[in-house]
Amino acid sequence: MFARVVRVVIVALSVLAISLVPAPARADEPVVIPDACTAVHPYDAAQSMAALQSGIEANWGFTLTGKYWADETYRPIVAVIWHTLDAISCTPYLDALHAKAGVLGLYATSIGGWVAGDYGLTRADTVSLDFPQLLTNYQTDPGHVSRLFVHEMTHAYSRDRGTNPAYWADFSALYAKNGRFGSYGGSSSETFSEVVGYFVARCAANNPYTPSEAAYYDFVKAEVFGGKEFGPALGQPLSCEPSANPPGAYASASAAVQAAIQDREAAAAEIAANGAEIYGYESLSTSGASDSD
């Protein structure tokens, strides 16, 4: 009985200590993608940049080159790319991409000018990403990083459009009818990459997807992502606020709190039954409030 009371005190002090520790900064706090897929490889902010680079290569079949992958300054960009790949991993997208492009290279570089990324221009058969520029974009619009990443990957995805496969024939007919999507791109190729990029990065600023763009939305959902969507149906409320309590955060503290409550109640019952004076306490409140200052 005495041991249980002592345990109550120790656990309570532990919980208090945990509650006083400030939450660590999280590079993945902004909501960029309301995930379509259950995280298979959750992002771990404690991993080194080298481990994150190796993880992207091993988990999703890319080859990463360029010095910025290993630069701690660009952790937020790598985190967004990680989250994006994990969020689309249960859809047909990545398998189709690799079937067309093989082991696609991702080159972290500085392109210069206003272009933040390209496919096959800076380096052949490679998606090049301007990490310094993307870091600037990230400050005001983290979703832009995900959208641009998917946009450039989708140029590799559509590299077989010259043979007019079924998905491209369907999209071409849709483009002929609906035309430009948003403010960027004046060709079917750029529009295709835009409708796919914004479909994934639902929380990107100025996302053109409204019910008036349902035709493009329904096409991408059905023919690119196998019926998966990243968030609620088009036109339904979409929350892009970071969770106050991210899944898994402080789980051990929560468990400790519950254990403390249970032990506190049990110990209080024992004290009431046996007499508080034998423990050296005057009282033990089950509410956590002190009877005196």
Write structural notes for this entry.
- This protein has 293 residues and is mainly alpha-helical.
- It has two domains: 2-23 and 254-279, no CATH class; 49-223.
- It has helices at residues 2-20, 49-60, 75-88, 93-101, 131-140, 142-157, 166-178, 188-200, 214-223, 251-274; strands at residues 63-65, 105-109, 117-119, 126-130.
- It has a four-stranded mixed β-sheet.
- The radius of gyration is 26 Å and the shape is globular.
Question: How would you summarize the topology of this molecule?
Answer:
Layout: H1 2-20, H2 49-60, E1 63-65, H3 75-88, H4 93-101, E2 105-109, E3 117-119, E4 126-130, H5 131-140, H6 142-157, H7 166-178, H8 188-200, H9 214-223, H10 251-274
Helix pairs in contact: 1-10, 2-3, 3-6, 4-6, 5-6, 6-8, 7-9
Report the uncertain regions. 1-28, 244-261, 276-293
Structural class given helices, strands, pairing?
mainly alpha
Using only CA atoms, what is the Rg? 26 Å
* Count of strand segments: 4
The ordered string of helix (H) and strand (E) elements is: HHEHHEEEHHHHHH
Nearest-integer average pLDDT: 80
